[in-house]
Amino acid sequence: MTQETYQYIRCLYCTEGKETQVVRYFTEHSSFKAIHPKKVWPYFRDGGWMYRIGYLMRSYVFLYGDKAVPKKFLLNIPNVEAVLGYIDDEEGYLRGQDRAFAELLLEQNGLLNCLRGMPDGNRIEITDEFMRRFHATVVKVDKHKRAALVAFPLLENELRCWFGYTTPEFERREQLRRDIG
């Protein structure tokens, strides 16, 4: 698998619920690649854990391209409300950790899996590489839903997102359930 690389990466803030239309617009009308981040989300049904795809970041679309496009042009795209960026950079191209996060999304084709965790007494410690790589911290864990509220820096702000998590014990039980059932 060849890793795609792009010279210019931006983060667009879109009308909530219209992110797919923005992605479709760029796919159909340009050479840019657009991704609306999604996540794998666990849920319990019929005696076992199942997984569905959910939105990681509502209203956010990451835009990848090899040519610079003025911010004013992007703001004229239907349902694009803002081009997010930095105080010291008017055009808003991502850099540093923000760019690394966008590149991770690109590498994963916009879909982030459940985080890895380890039981630690009555607690669950999230040990996933994502946490270290992006200086993320666990704010809260809901063991019943197998979900962790994770805070990480993005565009000079703290972004909080719920992620599903899994542990080796959960994985063993699910494999056993699949083998038996």
In words, what does this structure look like?
The chain has helices spanning 19-29, 71-75, 96-107, 129-133, 168-180, and strands spanning 8-14, 33-35, 38-45, 48-55, 60-65, 80-84, 111-112, 115-120, 123-126, 137-142, 147-154, 157-166. With 181 residues, the chain is of the alpha+beta class. Strands 9-8-12-11-10 form a five-stranded mixed sheet. Strands 2-5-1-6 form a four-stranded antiparallel sheet, with helices on both faces.
Radius of gyration from the CA trace? 18 Å
Strand content range: 35-45%
- Order of strands in the sheet with most strands: 9-8-12-11-10
Largest sheet: 5 strands, mixed
Secondary-structure class: alpha+beta
Give the helix level as a range of percent.
Answer: 25-40%
The shape, in one word, is: elongated
The N- to C-terminal Cα distance equals 34 Å
Number of helices: 5
The helix-strand sequence is EHEEEEHEHEEEHEEEH
Number of strands: 12
The low-confidence runs, each spanning 5 or more residues with pLDDT under 50, are none
The averaged pLDDT comes out at: 88
